[in-house]
Design a protein that fits this description.
about 350 residues, mainly beta, Immunoglobulin-like, 5-stranded mixed beta sheet
Length: about 350
């Protein structure tokens, strides 16, 4: 799913964009929407030139003399939870130096330090940037937005990355919307071509679609079956366990009428991988929440006595929030798990999924 958030750029507000792939994109237009769709009922006269829309005095122009080379950075496929870096050039074709008035990333996952620096006349200035990915798989993008002293320009540089484990699911989701698709199969492929074995699917022993024995291979076609759940609900994510050293756990989003995730807080991802644990182990993970503004978390709590969670820290950039939490096992049974915790603010609370495996 690709979510795109737009906010007006004023002296202290920025045009931001953050995307991740999880579900089909939804577009909602309402009376309160900032996007208006209109249709002309009378065509303009062929001799009349349409008037240009006035530029807001509070919004910098989207074009100007300063250029980014390259204009965007695509890191391609990287492992979840990694930090990637790149350096680009800001080019100044003018015959005078230009000071960067403000350089602000669109989310706390991106780091840049360029505010106040000067691009020399007829020259360039290198801009180092870094992007920290989530511990879950999916596509992510963030922008670094800049304005400059002396003229009206907004320059945006987009950073793009797709996180994927060394074992990748194809497709990356299970479509169980129709009754006949409550049972089927999916493919797992080792990107590094290292042979591996699929151990479990939703806690049950893995089975090949053709009934053949589960032996090490670089590709497996594996069965899933939700018809055997009985009274248990369809899980929002299917957790798969492998013996690949770099991909012990793989999650697949399950699309079903009962698995819609609509939290009241804008989580950048709907789940987080806490990894493989031993009894009473702890693991720290970071959770990004968008559109927080001045809101702050008042706490995080477990919804299951078999584990506990603690809020360790929270960092805000004025728009989003990066929360660090600690997950600790209390009495989780052996095998894979998918459990919920609850994030709280003074006004809201929203549930968030954590998954892993107990050994």
């Amino acid at each position: 799913m690709k979510h795109v958030a737009l906010a007006a750029l004023a002296s202290s507000a920025w045009l931001v964009s953050l995307a991740h792939a999880d579900e089909p994109t939804r577009v909602i237009v309402s009376a309160h929407s900032s996007i208006a769709l209109t249709q002309a009922t009378t065509p303009p006269s062929p001799n009349t030139r349409p008037a240009a829309a006035p530029q807001s005095a509070q919004q910098p122009a989207s074009t100007g003399p300063i250029l980014a080379d390259p204009p965007n950075v695509d890191f391609g496929l990287i492992e979840p939870g990694k930090t990637v870096s790149a350096t680009i050039k800001l080019i100044n074709p003018l015959d005078r130096p230009v000071k960067i008035k403000l350089a602000k990333p669109s989310c706390t996952c991106t780091t840049v330090d360029m505010t106040g620096k000067v691009i020399p006349a007829k020259g360039f200035l290198e801009m180092p940037m870094s992007l920290k990915t989530a511990s879950s798989v999916g596509k992510r993008s963030a922008k670094i937005n800049m304005v400059f002293e002396g003229f009206d320009q907004l320059l945006s540089v987009e950073l793009i990355a797709e996180t994927a484990y060394q074992v990748r699911a194809n497709p990356p989701f299970i479509d169980a919307l129709a009754p006949e698709r409550m049972k089927g199969y999916f493919e797992l492929i080792a990107r590094d071509e290292q042979p591996f074995t699929v151990l479990t699917v939703d806690g049950a022993p893995a089975k090949h679609a053709d009934g053949s024995p589960m032996t090490p291979a670089t590709r497996h076609v594996v069965v899933y079956d939700f018809t055997q759940l009985g009274t248990r609900p369809v899980p929002p994510y299917l957790i798969v366990e492998t013996d690949h050293p770099k991909s012990p756990l793989v999650d697949l989003r399950v699309r079903h009428e009962t698995t819609r995730i609509m939290p009241t807080l804008s989580f950048a991802e709907f789940r987080e991988n806490v990894g493989v644990l031993k009894p009473q182990d702890s693991r720290e993970v970071e959770v990004q929440i968008k559109n927080m503004g001045a809101q702050r978390l008042t706490g995080v709590e477990s919804l299951d006595p078999a584990f506990k969670v603690e809020l360790l820290s929270q960092t805000s950039d004025g728009e989003g929030l990066l929360a660090k939490i600690r997950f600790t096992d209390v009495s989780l049974p052996k095998g894979t798990f998918l459990r919920a915790c609850r994030f709280k603010t003074a006004q809201k609370q929203a549930d968030f999924l954590l998954y892993g495996s107990m050994h």
